[in-house]
């Protein structure tokens, strides 16, 4: 039972309720405060309807009529978290939450915010409502994609062409703006459970970490659930965490929380089987695909396929179910590890094919297993997967010490930087720290991601509306991004004259401006100060000229203002002087 002031009381019988009433009566006499039972909400922990409780609560002098169970249309909200008993209650609660975020995005979309401003609003004001719930309520893939769509629409509001959502998520030093992706946040919030499962127990018991591992009561239940998935092997809870093939049928046994744990584990750096010190007993329990690697004659393996699907295109499904022990055996007489004969295996046809591809150099055994073949085995050891975890233990410890490092790993896994934005960290840090107006940063950021509305791109996206890819000023030339920014003769004249105004002695080489705008190649111009606007260096002035040309481009499009050196140059100069005087004031 939960009261409006978030007091939660667990009751089992009517006598417990009578005892609660007696205690609250004493409290109200002592504090001169009264308990409003009309605002009290009762719910069943099991989700089952209880006539035993509903009749009793409604028969009181001050009846309690709010009752929640699996048949209620909505979830019960406690401390901001939805307490749900079925999928429909959960989905409705998430839908209401997403609607709140959508309304917030709609309100803030009316503001003329820069990309940096929209990022701050989204991360701090809007998505903060979600992170509170993500700690205990897992979202489905569909709900995550819906939320990403809401965020992408907000970040691209009133802008076209739109930047893909995946390009907003990387950190600023990776070419993004650091949007807090819901999937990354969900996985980070579940790391505290996974860490207790994969980090060495002896390490967690050290004084350095013991106070941070606080889920000892939950871990046994997680291990038990994982062991059910893995069919009860020794130390079996680790198997489904490391091997996706050991998770077959887990959806019938577990809840969505295990799905998140598996997704998180798969997102971490993979174990290095060749560097592990696994026992032979453990090797024999692995999938056959785990102990083979490409060899000299291995065909090219596409990123979306596995080595087994390429080498065994007709038998990949069958080969994926084969264990090492199905093909290898310790000879009972000689105690030598060898391949099984056709009579000793359940899969003689597949074994013969396996021998052929090994002999032809299409695949080979990993080194530490290959060294065991043909040798006398004195002791097979126990089945233990901990050595596999040890190969990445330094990464796990780093993520345990610094949760932000885990965020870096997850972002790099799900949202790798696009080729056009793979610049050095120093370049991105310089760009993000430029003393320029936020709107300049927004336009420049879109240029780096090749999302400015040049005619060539618009013609490619919506050819029915933009019939030609030619430049407005020079109809014989295609209006590519480079032409739109600098190569157009009219704009090139504006760039040269404006830069010569503030850098009379500077010699600007052809291509240098485009290298700064699109590749952040600052070189020696990074710290070159203007002798005219003395508070500004070369790169911020480049940004001012960019936004001046941008503004006048739209005056030409919407107001039919003539776009010439005479008309555009004063605007560019005024923006430079405005930034100069603001820098002096700061």
From TrEMBL:
TM segment ranges: 532-550
Region forming the signal peptide: none
Domain (Reverse transcriptase) ranges: 1-83
Keyword entries, A-Z: Membrane, Transmembrane, Transmembrane helix
Cited InterPro entries: RT_dom
The protein's name: Reverse transcriptase domain-containing protein
Organism in which the protein naturally occurs: Mucor saturninus
């Amino acid at each position: 039972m939960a009261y409006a002031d978030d007091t939660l009381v667990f009751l089992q019988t009517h006598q417990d309720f009578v005892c609660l009433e007696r205690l609250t009566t004493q409290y109200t006499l002592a504090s001169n405060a009264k308990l409003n039972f009309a605002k009290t909400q009762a719910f069943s922990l099991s989700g089952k309807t209880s006539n035993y409780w509903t009749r009793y609560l409604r028969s009181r002098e001050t009846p309690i009529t709010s009752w929640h169970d699996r048949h209620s249309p909505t979830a019960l909200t406690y401390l901001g978290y939805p307490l749900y008993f079925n999928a429909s209650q959960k989905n409705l609660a998430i839908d209401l939450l997403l609607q709140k975020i959508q309304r917030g995005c709609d309100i803030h979309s009316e503001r003329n915010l820069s990309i940096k401003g929209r990022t701050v609003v989204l991360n701090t004001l809007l998505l903060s409502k979600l992170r509170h719930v993500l700690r205990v309520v897992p979202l489905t893939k569909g709900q995550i994609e819906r939320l990403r769509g809401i965020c992408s629409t907000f970040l691209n509001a009133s802008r076209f062409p739109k930047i893909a959502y995946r390009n907003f998520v990387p950190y600023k030093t990776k070419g993004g703006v650091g949007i807090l992706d819901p999937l990354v946040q969900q996985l980070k919030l579940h790391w505290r459970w996974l860490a207790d499962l994969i980090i060495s127990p002896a390490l967690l018991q050290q004084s350095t970490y013991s106070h941070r591992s606080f889920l000892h009561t939950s871990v046994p239940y997680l291990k038990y659930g994982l062991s059910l998935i893995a069919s009860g092997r020794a130390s079996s809870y680790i198997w489904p965490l490391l091997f996706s093939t050991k998770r077959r049928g887990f959806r019938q046994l577990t809840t969505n929380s295990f799905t998140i744990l598996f997704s998180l584990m798969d997102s971490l750096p993979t174990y290095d089987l060749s560097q592990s010190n696994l026992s032979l007993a453990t090797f024999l329990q692995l999938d056959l695909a785990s102990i083979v690697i490409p060899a000299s004659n291995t065909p090219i393996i596409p990123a979306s396929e596995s080595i087994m699907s390429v080498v065994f295109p007709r038998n990949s499904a069958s080969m994926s179910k084969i264990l090492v022990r199905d093909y290898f055996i310790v000879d009972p007489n000689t105690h030598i590890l060898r391949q099984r004969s056709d009579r000793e295996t359940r899969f003689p046809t597949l074994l013969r094919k396996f021998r052929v591809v090994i002999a032809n150099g299409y695949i080979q055994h990993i080194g530490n297993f290959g060294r065991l073949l043909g040798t006398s085995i004195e002791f097979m050891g126990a089945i233990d997967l901990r050595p596999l975890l040890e190969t990445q233990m330094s990464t796990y410890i780093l993520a345990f010490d610094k949760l932000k490092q885990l965020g870096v790993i997850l972002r790099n896994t799900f949202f790798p930087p696009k080729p056009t934005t793979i610049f050095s960290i120093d370049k991105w840090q310089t760009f993000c720290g430029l003393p320029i107006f936020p709107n300049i940063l927004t336009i420049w950021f879109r240029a780096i991601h090749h999302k400015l509305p040049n005619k060539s791109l618009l013609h490619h996206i919506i050819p029915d509306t933009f019939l030609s890819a030619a430049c407005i000023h020079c109809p014989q030339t295609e209006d590519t991004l480079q032409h739109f920014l600098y190569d157009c003769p009219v704009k090139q004249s504006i760039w040269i004259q404006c830069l010569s105004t503030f850098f009379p002695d500077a010699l600007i080489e052809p291509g240098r401006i485009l290298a700064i705008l699109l590749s952040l190649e600052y070189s020696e111009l990074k710290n070159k100060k203007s002798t005219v606007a003395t508070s500004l260096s070369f790169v911020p002035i480049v940004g001012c000229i960019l936004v001046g040309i941008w503004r006048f481009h739209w005056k030409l499009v919407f107001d039919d203002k003539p776009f010439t050196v005479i008309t555009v140059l004063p605007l560019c100069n005024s923006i430079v002087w405005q930034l100069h005087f603001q820098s002096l004031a700061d």
